[in-house]
Amino acid sequence: MVSLLFYFAEPIHLQSSQIYIPRGTISKIISYLDKRGIDSFFIDRFTLRFIGYPQSGWIDLHHRKLRRLDFLYLLTKSKAALIKITLIPGETTYTIIDELAKRYHVSQKVLQNEYNSVAPYPEGVLFPETYAIPKNMEPKRVIQLLVHLSLARHKKLSSKFYGTYNQKLWFEKIVTIASIIQKEAANREEMPLIASVIYNRLKKGMPLQMDGTLNYGQYSHIKVSPKRIQEDSSRFNTYKFFGLPPYPVCIVSKEAIAAAVFPAKTSYLYFVRISKGRHKFSKTYKNHLQNIKRVQK
User: Fold this and answer.
1) Same domain, 206 and 243
2) Closest CA relative to residue 256, chosen from 168, 195, 165
3) Are residues 197 and 106 in the same domain?
């Protein structure tokens, strides 16, 4: 009896006061916790059956150090208050981190450094979605969680389309092309057509010459001018450099990714923006110039 009291009184040290509990049986939950460094034993299963069933989702334990019995009790009673963070397709990671820094009243540099330490690429890793995050979660952990959940979505999509996940191929080709589609397409229906232009120009060895690639990072919402095209010497300037940029220019939707994987079968090499933001596509430079003249009238 004395040893049992000591067992329940022993401290449990947690990396964070907020933990995620999956749906499932008590045995499954105990196993989940054990894999994440929270040592659990058969007695914990019996204890939980007695005091109550663990809640699923985010749990706020309020402390990083708890007695084992308090920890088990809070698993059944202490649901975390959640906030929503929405990531929008086409936005840049630079802008997202800047907004999060303002929201959490922390340095943008601190969050950027945290992102750099956990994300495999500077851009395109975060997946656009609305995430339910514990209200009191530390900003650095928010970044870690967003990257973790986003990479899981990328791996799932890659496996769906290709049956495997090659991180380099996925981000440096598919997501990079998808990010250009995301920046250029006026709507979802245009995405496969924009994709076809990208692939057709790459196949012919033509420069992509797309403004959207220059809306990277801090330039996300800045209109691309002739001066900007002339002065920008980065690999994102597809007027100066052939091929794709080194990595994505923004975060991308699953629709843009699908278009990058399954482009429309066309001979289009050019497009120009017309009324209501839509584009007119053409196969030859001559027709492209004619379309430009019609727009300028």
Assistant:
1) yes
2) 195
3) no
The residue range of the domain holding 86 is 82-162
User: Residue 160: its pLDDT value, please?
Assistant: 96
141 and 187 share a domain? no
Considering the domain architecture, whether residues 105 and 152 belong to the same structural domain is answered as yes
Same domain flag for 140 and 33: no
Per-residue pLDDT at 133: 92
The token pair that represents 234 in the structure block: 């980065």
Burial pattern 162-180, b for ≥16 Cβ within 10 A else e, equals: eeeeeeeebbbebbbbbbb
Q: Which pLDDT value is given to residue 1?
A: 52
- The C-alpha angle 271, 157, 220, rounded to 5 degrees, equals 45
pLDDT at 127: 98
**pLDDT given for residue 2 in this prediction:** 45
pLDDT at position 234 is: 96
Number of domains in the chain: 3
* Final residue in a domain of this structure, among 120, 142, 162: 162
- Characterize 101-133 residue by residue with b for buried, 16 or more Cβ atoms within 10 angstroms of its Cβ, and e for exposed: beebeeeeeebbebbeeebebbbbbbbbbebeb
Average pLDDT of each block of 10 consecutive residues along the chain (297 residues)? 67 83 84 82 78 82 83 83 94 97 95 97 97 92 96 97 96 98 94 98 96 95 93 96 97 98 97 85 90 78
Q: Given 129, 162, 195, which residue is the final one in a domain?
A: 162
**What is the predicted pLDDT for the residue at 112?**
97
